[in-house]
UniProtKB/TrEMBL annotation:
Coiled coil: none annotated. Residues 9-69 form the HTH iclR-type domain. This is IclR family transcriptional regulator. PROSITE patterns: HTH_ICLR, ICLR_ED. It comes from Actinomadura decatromicini. Residues 70-249 form the IclR-ED domain. One of its GO terms (molecular function) is DNA-binding transcription factor activity. InterPro entries: GAF-like_dom_sf (IPR029016), HTH_MetabolicPath_Reg (IPR050707), Tscrpt_reg_IclR_C (IPR014757), Tscrpt_reg_IclR_N (IPR005471), WH-like_DNA-bd_sf (IPR036388), WH_DNA-bd_sf (IPR036390). The keyword Iron does not apply. Pfam families: HTH_IclR (PF09339), IclR_C (PF01614).
Length: 251
């Protein structure tokens, strides 16, 4: 029996599932992997992928598909990320020059952070983060910096969703994370002490909007054996405060 055509809402959800199957380091995906990641039957995933190719949101590479240029163009129109990134890049460049370490800019989406821009450093560690990639907010300095200056309902939803563990040092107890966020609110700086990945540490500070809530966060990351958090923390805090003022946020 032939599969009945999906309704508009069903098709949209399935199309989003197909697009969301791509990860930051994927060049392209084959039919089987696309179906597995999207959770759709192979025939359904294939048909939707062809529709997305026709719309320019995906591009064909033989039997495989990759994200299309039109999808990138649409993404560049997202106001919050574009404005934040454009304003942040000069400050990020100065911060990298001052610290000689990798600098991140991230925003919060659900219980995860999305990396909007990364300025790498020569000789720095290979980071688990990538532009457009995601990590659980509770294991990252940028995530904790944003959560500390987010509305209470946002923090509550993250704490109640279950905290991910990406290394042996990840904080997964809601009470412990809540107390850490209180400290971040007092000091303005959050830390990742090998919580997102072994051997990597970072200091992060929130970028605040006019309402006092975080628009995103800046961080400086490096090797745990060579980067001194106490030295880079004031630099990232100052850069985040300056960027906040640029965007009309509270000092």
């Amino acid at each position: 029996m032939a599969e009945s055509p999906p309704s508009g809402g069903t098709f949209l959800r399935r199309a989003v599932a197909v697009l969301a199957a791509f990860r930051a380091d994927d060049a392209d995906l084959g039919p089987a992997e696309l179906a597995r990641r999207s959770g759709l039957p192979k025939s359904t995933a294939h048909r939707i992928a062809l529709d997305l190719v026709e719309a320019g949101l995906l591009e064909r590479r033989g039997p495989r598909v990759r994200l299309g240029l039109k999808l990138f163009e649409i993404g560049q129109r997202v106001p919050r990320q574009r404005v934040l990134r454009d304003a942040a890049v000069p400050h990020m460049s100065d911060l990298r020059e001052a610290t000689r370490q990798t600098v991140h800019l991230a925003v919060l989406e659900g219980a995860e952070v999305v990396y909007v821009e990364i300025l790498g450093s020569a000789g720095g560690p290979r980071m688990p983060s990538q532009v457009g990639g995601r990590l659980p907010a509770n294991v990252t300095g940028v995530g904790k910096a944003i959560l500390a200056f987010s509305p209470p309902d946002v923090v509550r939803s993250v704490l109640e969703a279950g905290l991910a563990k990406t290394s042996e040092r990840s904080v997964t107890a809601p009470g412990l994370l809540a107390r850490e966020l209180e400290r971040v609110r007092r000091e303005g700086v959050a830390y990742d002490r090998e919580e997102s990945g072994t051997g990597i540490v970072c200091a992060a500070s929130p970028v605040l909007g006019p309402d006092g809530y975080a628009l995103g966060a800046l961080s400086v990351s490096g090797w745990a054996t060579t980067m001194r958090l106490a030295v880079v923390a004031p630099a990232v805090h100052t850069a985040a405060l300056t960027l906040s003022r640029t965007l009309g946020g509270e000092p």
